[in-house]
Structures are given as structure tokens and as C-alpha cells.
Design goal:
Oligomer: homodimer
Radius of gyration of chain A: 23 Å
Strand order of the largest sheet of chain A: 1-3-2
Number of strands of chain A: 3
CATH superfamily of the largest domain in chain A: Winged helix-like DNA-binding domain superfamily/Winged helix DNA-binding domain
Largest sheet of chain A: 3 strands, antiparallel
Helix content of chain A: over 70%
Order of helices and strands of chain A: HHEHHEEHHHH
Shape of chain A: elongated
CATH class of the largest domain in chain A: Mainly Alpha
Number of domains of chain A: 2
Distance between the termini of chain A: 54 Å
Largest interface: A-B, 63 and 63 residues
CATH topology of the largest domain in chain A: Arc Repressor Mutant, subunit A
DNA sequence: TGCACCTTTCGATCGCTATTGAAAATTGTA
DNA sequence: TACAATTTTCAATAGCGATCGAAAGGTGCA
């Protein structure tokens, strides 16, 4: 007969699995790869520092794969390496704070995706400017396209500066956003 | 010798291509597929109502592919079908307003991605509740995990209600956000 | 210093989604 | 109503990133 303890542990494992599966699905939303997300999910939900072998076993992922994805997670800053005394293995632990994780992901995505887009848009705008087009500033098709690129730039630079502000002063904006959501 | 007009058109085409390529890269950011994004990019930047054949030729995409992706775009509400008199072909035209496009995409993603995640998290939380776990509310591992799920839920419901508010009253929140970004 | 343990790298595969193209369905016109 | 023009569907295929696993590379302890 199973002990009460064992039954509870069983249930916890089940919830953890569900959670990892969920994280897997959230991957697209956060813009990271599914396996990376699953590993992070496991580390987040258990709250423990796990070794590569722990993760391999628990998620049935190969050693190489775990290694690669863990380094990415460390690179993103979502996971920290932890050394345990008297143990040569490395252990890995997730950040605990949800807002901090969100901020890190947002910062990465801004740098990797948003910034290059804004730069390219600026170059497009430049290419359609009267100077480059050779004086015919009133050329209709060019003007129209220039306008649309501008609309987009306005929107994206707004998003950009909102993000920037957020990274600079977590606290204030965080509360402002919470307030906006309420009312 | 080429006319001035022809040279200008050439330059405009080049910028359009660059823009489509850019849209292609933005796809992950918006969470839509690259080809869908390219088609939408073309429709947005030209501002014109194009036929399937126009798009096929311009982007070198097969008929079936264009058809499928156009219906998705129509389904998302980013593109509208346009009928021209004396012409059996259908034409397709992008929305022009950047904020409106953003709202549409955000609404879709909330419904498809965020809502299911929040539901699953609630179920996870439920599964760890004292009632389900059978009275032992103070069980440590369960409590810890429950706490972490809760943190996440708080964060995601905040995002959710912010989005909700935004969909309800575009104008007010839009300005509030712009204000936040400024200062 | 040498050895055992652990991690990383990387070429070979795999699996999945995107894409094609042709056949079927639909639509509008004479 | 029949036919031609256009769109949609869908089975086959292609392409690409994810994954594996073994070999090479590090690292710390005796």
C-alpha cells in the first residue's frame, strides 16, 4: 500500500508535467523555442536547482539538446548556473520573479527583432525621400508609400520607447500598467 | 533611354521588395506565418487592391499558397476582399490603420494563445488546492508550486485585462500608452 | 600530473510545417 | 443552362530547424 506522501508526490509530478506542457505551448507567445521553454518551465515550477541528468530524464531529451538549450537560457538570463559543494556537476535554477523574466525576454526581443526592423524602416524611408529620388518630392506613389512607412515607424518607435522606459524603471511603469488594466 | 518615370518606378519597386522582406522578418514578432506576412506586407505597402495573380507574380508564390494565406488574412481581418465591376477576379486590400491592425492581431492572439493558457493554469492551481490534495493544505512542495502558479496567473491576468480594456476603448488607452512612453 | 567525470560540439538524421500543382469546386456571364 | 474564368482543396513533396549521440574538449580531485 502506498503512503499518503507517495500519492501526493505523484499528484505534484502530474501537475508539473502539465505545467511543462503548458510552457511548451507558450513558447510562441514568448518567442522562444519549445524545448527551451519546456526546460525553463520545469526549472520554474519545481523551483529547484536541477542537473543536466535530472532534466534529461524528466523531459526525455538528449544530453546535447539539454546542453544547448540550457546555455541559451543562461544567455537570456532566465536561468542561472549553480555550483554545489562536493559535487562536480553543474546545477541550473530558474529566476523566480515573473516580472523579471518578462522583462528579460522583452529586452532580448526588442534588441533582436524590434531594433533591426526600425532601422530597416528608416532606410526604406530614406530611399523614398525627395533628395534620393531626385527632387521630385511630390511624386505620388512614392509619397504614399513614404507615408505608410512613417505611420508604421511612429507606431514602432512608440512601442520601442515604452519598452525602453520599462527597462529603465521597472517599478513605476509596472504600477502604471497595473493601474491602466484596472480602470 | 529610360524615362525619369521608369527610373522612379524601379526605385519604388525596390523599396517595396525590401519592405516585404522586412514584413517577412516581423512575422515571428506578430506571431503569424512568414508567407502570410509577406503577402500582407505587399498589400500594405502598395496600398492597392491586388488580385491573386498580381501577388503570385510579384512574390513568386504558387496559386494554392496565395489562396490559403489570403483566406487566413481575411479571417484575421487584416485584409478585405474587394470586387471590381466588370471583372470576375477578386481583389484584396490591406487595412491602412496601423493601430487597427495591431489590435486585430493582438485580439486573435489573446483568444488563441493567452486565454487557453490562463485556463490551464487555473486547472493546475485547482489540482494543487487543499481540497483536492485531501486536507493537507500545508504540504510544502505543493504550496510552493501553487504559489508560483499564482504569481504567473497574476501576471497573465493583468496582461489579459490590459488587452481587454484596450480592445474596448481604443482611443483612451492608446493615448495613455503614448503618454507613458513619453515620460 | 593523470584520471575520471562532466559538458560541449557538430555532422547525420528526423519530423514537421510550408509549398506546390493539378484536379475539383465554385462563380458569374452569355 | 452551359461554359469559361477563377478560386479552393488536398495529396505529394520539399525545405528547414530541431534533435540525437558519439567524439572531442574541459575541469577538478587524488
Amino acid at each position: 500500500m502506498k503512503t499518503r506522501r507517495a500519492v501526493l508526490d505523484q499528484q505534484i509530478l502530474q501537475v508539473e508535467d502539465q505545467f511543462v506542457e503548458l510552457w511548451n505551448n507558450m513558447a510562441t507567445l514568448w518567442g522562444i523555442s519549445p524545448t527551451m521553454a519546456r526546460i525553463h518551465g520545469l526549472l520554474y515550477i519545481t523551483g529547484a536547482a536541477l542537473s543536466m541528468d535530472d532534466i534529461m530524464e524528466r523531459l526525455a531529451i538528449s544530453r546535447g539538446n539539454v546542453s544547448m538549450n540550457l546555455s541559451k537560457l543562461v544567455e537570456w538570463g532566465l536561468v542561472r548556473r549553480v555550483h554545489k559543494k562536493r559535487d562536480r556537476k553543474e546545477y541550473y535554477e530558474s529566476l523566480h520573479d515573473v516580472w523579471e523574466m518578462f522583462t528579460l525576454v522583452a529586452a532580448q526581443r526588442k534588441r533582436r527583432e524590434l531594433d533591426p526592423i526600425i532601422n530597416t524602416l528608416r532606410r526604406c524611408k530614406e530611399a523614398l525621400s525627395p533628395e534620393v529620388l531626385g527632387g521630385r518630392a511630390d511624386d505620388d506613389p512614392a509619397r504614399e508609400r513614404s507615408q505608410r512607412i512613417n505611420d508604421l515607424l511612429k507606431f514602432l518607435t512608440l512601442v520601442d520607447s515604452l519598452a525602453q522606459k520599462f527597462f529603465e524603471s521597472h517599478r513605476g511603469l509596472r504600477e502604471a500598467i497595473a493601474l491602466l488594466a484596472q480602470e
